[in-house]
Write a structure and sequence with these properties.
Elements lengths: L5 E3 L1 H9 L3 E4 L2 H6 L4 H15 L3 E8 L2 E4 L3 H9 L4 E3 L4 H6 L4 E3 L1 H10 L4 E3 L10 H4 L4 H8 L3 E4 L8 H10 L4 E4 L18 E3 L2 H13 L6 E4 L10 H17 L7 H12 L3 H27 L1
Parallel strand pairs: 1-4, 2-3, 2-7, 5-6, 7-8, 8-11, 9-10, 9-11
Antiparallel strand pairs: 3-4, 3-6
Helix pairs in contact: 3-4, 3-13, 6-8, 10-13, 11-12
């Protein structure tokens, strides 16, 4: 029944026919995460990294009432330039599809669409989580609930450092979501390679990651896995510096009464401004690094299947 909503690119269709591994990519990073033209340029470069590592990229978005699994260059440009693309999470999908509107998929929505399309590995920048002061605002990303019930591995640079990382980990533990560090014992915090928090498990190779995913899902254990891959050392920002910047950005958000799904894009934009663009450079570097690792894991998982 749901197949009527899915529209595959030719490249993804061919991958399905020939049993090649496919890696999902979100589109919120294009529409709401980076300015034009860096957003489109980065999206194309990330797709190319996935191809170079033996997999097929499938950037996912909602366009004219369809879930697009794989986008053309023209569609990437449209997402990157259009100012009125909706930010699409789980709650938004039915409305956007039924009303034939356009939406850029968040981590949660991309996981849903990837699972519908039979894609098991998804590459992004960082997951959403429990926002600071969530004990009063109740601002908790739906990414965390999605990780608890949707069978897709999320390769990321940890949780975004604008969040309460400790509470995010507690929430994931309650939901039974494994958080595995790729070559690290410490949870990376997006712009930095480490944080004060440890991961649940450490994995050091794509094969080990694939074996863990295969074991989890063969047992019928519902839900995803966070594979936390640190930003490359050369591109990481200094922890004290980025912490001070984030505190300033959070204060500005409060002063401007920013709330709900507007918080993350506002904070990321403010951090970019306060770091004079170095945070954007770091963001691009970590997404590319995640694409390399994620596609290698997808290749290994595909060989196990």
């Amino acid at each position: 029944m749901y197949e009527k909503w899915l529209d595959y690119s030719k490249e993804v269709l061919e991958a399905r026919r020939t049993n090649k591994p496919v890696v999902a990519l979100e589109s919120t990073i294009i529409s709401h995460g980076m300015p034009y033209p860096q957003n489109v340029k980065t999206a194309k470069e990330v797709e190319e990294i996935i191809r170079e590592n033996g997999a097929v990229p499938a950037t996912i978005a909602i366009l004219n009432g369809k879930i697009k699994i794989g986008l053309s260059d023209e569609e990437l440009e449209f997402l990157g330039k259009s100012p009125d693309i909706e930010k699409a999470s789980r709650r938004d999908l039915p409305y956007l599809l039924a009303s034939k509107k356009n939406g850029a998929t968040t981590v949660a929505a991309t996981m849903i669409c990837a699972e519908l399309a039979g894609i098991k590995v998804f590459v992004t920048g960082g997951i959403g989580g429990v926002h600071r002061e969530a004990e009063t605002t109740m601002d908790i990303s739906s990414d965390l609930q999605e990780l608890a019930k949707t069978n897709v591995a999320v390769v990321c640079a940890g949780a975004k450092s604008i969040l309460d990382i400790g509470l995010t980990l507690e929430y994931l533990e309650t939901q039974g979501v494994p958080v595995a560090g790729y070559g690290t014992d410490a949870l990376p915090a997006f712009y930095t390679r480490t944080s004060p928090y440890k991961v649940n498990f450490r994995i050091d190779t794509p094969h080990d990651a694939a074996e863990m995913l295969a074991a989890k899902w063969s047992l019928g254990l519902q839900g995803g896995v966070v594979i936390a891959n640190p930003i490359p050392e050369a591109d990481a920002l200094e922890e004290g510096f980025i912490t001070a910047v984030i505190e300033k950005a959070l204060g500005d958000a409060k002063e401007n009464n920013i709330s709900g799904k507007e918080v993350t894009p506002f904070l990321l934009g403010k951090v970019k401004e306060l770091t004079e663009g170095t945070s954007l450079t770091a963001n691009i570097a970590l997404v590319k690094n995640n694409a390399k690792v994620g596609s290698q894991i997808a290749v290994q998982l595909n060989s196990l299947d």
